[in-house]
Design goal:
Strand content: 15-25%
Largest sheet: 3 strands, antiparallel
Number of helices: 4
Number of domains: 2
Radius of gyration: 17 Å
Number of strands: 5
Helix content: 40-55%
Distance between the termini: 54 Å
Structural class: alpha+beta
Length: about 130
């Protein structure tokens, strides 16, 4: 079954190693195959990975797009340990993310990493609120 994606005018999508930019009107794409696919809104640029959880997301994104995702595993697991040591409440997120990473489910791992980013934001806000 093909993946159906509706693109807004001028929206970009990454399919495999190609960046596709929509023209000036809405478009519907039917995509079949195994190439990694990311909408522009889901792509994180390296310079935007300015917190530990965003760096995790970026590394998972790199895994998803890479031909050899295991090349990013050591960096990812080192950062994971640092984050878990600093914030043990992240363990539940990493348990789920790791399950998908080990099963080559990088896209699902990215979705869970978004939740980790939200959790990190909450932790920081709580610290800033406390006296």
């Amino acid at each position: 079954m093909a993946l159906v994606i509706d693109l807004k005018p001028h929206e970009k999508i990454l399919i495999g190693e190609a960046v596709i930019t929509n023209d000036s009107q809405r478009t519907r794409l039917h995509i079949a195959g195994d190439a990694p696919i990311l909408r522009e809104k889901d792509v994180m640029q390296e310079e935007d990975a300015d917190t530990p959880s965003k760096k995790i997301y970026f590394l998972i994104q790199c895994m998803y797009l890479a031909k050899k995702p295991e090349e990013y595993h050591a960096k990812y697991f080192n950062l994971l340990r640092e984050i878990q040591n600093a914030a043990p409440s992240t363990t539940i997120f990493f348990a789920q993310i790791n399950e998908h990473i080990m099963g080559n489910g990088y896209y699902r791992a990215m979705k869970l990493a978004r939740q980790l980013i939200d959790h990190e934001k909450e932790l920081i806000e709580n610290v800033l609120k406390s006296p």
